[in-house]
Design a protein that fits this description.
The protein is an alpha+beta fold and 380 residues long. Helices cover 46% and strands 12% of the residues.
Length: 380
């Protein structure tokens, strides 16, 4: 009976994890690594197919099949919500190694070394996710990792209590457990608390909570423009404040009339815009005398402090530093002494002001050179 209870618990925890993760993906609370999920979806699909072929009609086959469907659903959701970007060299190597291991598994699935190769491929598949979490632990802030870890623990108990397993099979369970647990430890054990993990600052569980020191960096309040982001601690020039994220859209997909939080778009290439993320970056307002600016780097688009920002001060940036469209403008209500009254494209700024932003690397890449503005003006 105990065997059945642990098996059911393992299945419930695993599928609860997928459900929670999909919810976080839908709400854009997680930003998964596409390379890892591409590998995992292929592995679970192959596992389901090979298990069904070897053990036709076994109830565990349905579990593997449902896991594969859930994993593929997450992968599809990731690709639908992200713009295309080529994999890094590390991601390419991980995909190639894991694909080779899966190919060997598919062809020689009864062979002892094929199983060991798959075991070795598991941590390789986690490497892109580990890198992503190391750079920014909020990318995987989901209680799913805790649920997957506990589910793996239940599977291990089932394996120990049940029929004896081979070294490769038992090793696979242990490696899965350690890999899921490693991500859980990296993002903070308190993320098992769904209330805190879904962005609400409540919940009594603070054991190794990786977010506790950073929970109160900002606060959202109302001002004359509506919602605004205010610093809750002091920032020095050069400090990274936020990452701007969101799905990319072609310029012809942007609505001609914008209103409300759902219509926050930031130009990121001459022909593409970044849409709203549903996060704090959507609420950062414009100022003609900003205390922060957008910096475009290979890892993403980040809001960086350009001077000291005191606690209680609104965080702002200049919208013109990414704009190339000559026919776009917006009435400015920043109320600063240097207010331009109208927000236009980068060319509308005073030449000295343009150079001020360029010198600090706070303009979009296509505006970093003087002649790029000239080309944009002639093209329009």
């Amino acid at each position: 009976m105990g065997y059945d209870i642990w098996f059911v618990l393992a299945v419930c925890l695993s599928f609860s994890a997928y459900a929670v993760y999909l919810l976080g993906l839908r709400r854009e609370l997680v930003r998964p690594n596409r390379a890892s999920w591409l590998i995992w979806s292929g592995a679970t699909a192959l596992e389901a197919v090979t298990y069904a072929a070897v053990n036709p009609g076994a109830p565990q086959g349905w579990v593997f099949a449902m896991s594969a469907v859930a994993c593929i659903a997450v992968t599809i959701g990731i690709w639908r919500r992200s713009s295309w970007a080529p994999p890094t060299n590390t991601e390419t190597a991980c995909i190639a190694i894991c694909a080779s291991a899966l190919l060997v598994w598919a062809v020689f699935r009864e062979a002892h070394w094929a199983h060991l190769l798959v075991v070795a491929a598991v941590p390789v598949s986690f490497w892109p996710t580990w890198q992503s979490v190391w750079q920014d632990r909020t990318r995987e802030r989901s209680p799913a990792w805790g649920l997957w870890t506990l589910g793996d623990l239940a599977v291990l108990i089932v394996a120990v209590r049940g029929p004896s397993l081979g070294v490769a099979e038992l090793g696979y369970v242990l490696v899965e457990l350690l890999c899921h647990a490693s991500v859980w430890f990296m993002i903070g054990l308190a993320t098992i608390n769904p209330i805190r993990s879904l962005g609400v600052r409540r919940g009594p569980l603070f054991v190794l909570d990786a977010y506790r020191p950073t929970d109160n960096l900002f606060r959202v309040e109302e001002n004359h423009l509506g919602k605004a982001v205010y610093a809750a601690t002091r920032f020095a020039p050069g400090d990274t404040l936020l990452e701007f994220t969101g799905r990319r859209f072609r310029a012809d997909q942007i609505p001609s009339i914008m209103h409300g939080r759902s219509d926050r778009f930031v130009q990121v290439t001459p022909d593409h815009y970044m849409g709203p993320s549903g996060r704090l970056d959507d609420l950062v307002n414009h100022s003609c005398d900003p205390n922060a600016g957008l910096r475009f780097v290979d890892e993403g688009v980040f809001l960086v402090a350009v001077r000291d920002i005191a606690p209680g001060e609104e965080v702002t940036w200049d919208y013109s530093t990414t704009l190339t469209q000559s026919n776009w403008h917006m009435i400015c209500q920043c109320r600063t002494e240097s207010c331009r009254r109208v927000i236009g494209n980068f060319e509308s700024l005073d030449p000295d002001r343009q150079e001020w932003f360029r010198a600090r690397n706070l303009v979009a890449p296509y505006l970093r050179r003087k002649d790029s503005v000239t080309r944009e003006r002639k093209a329009s």
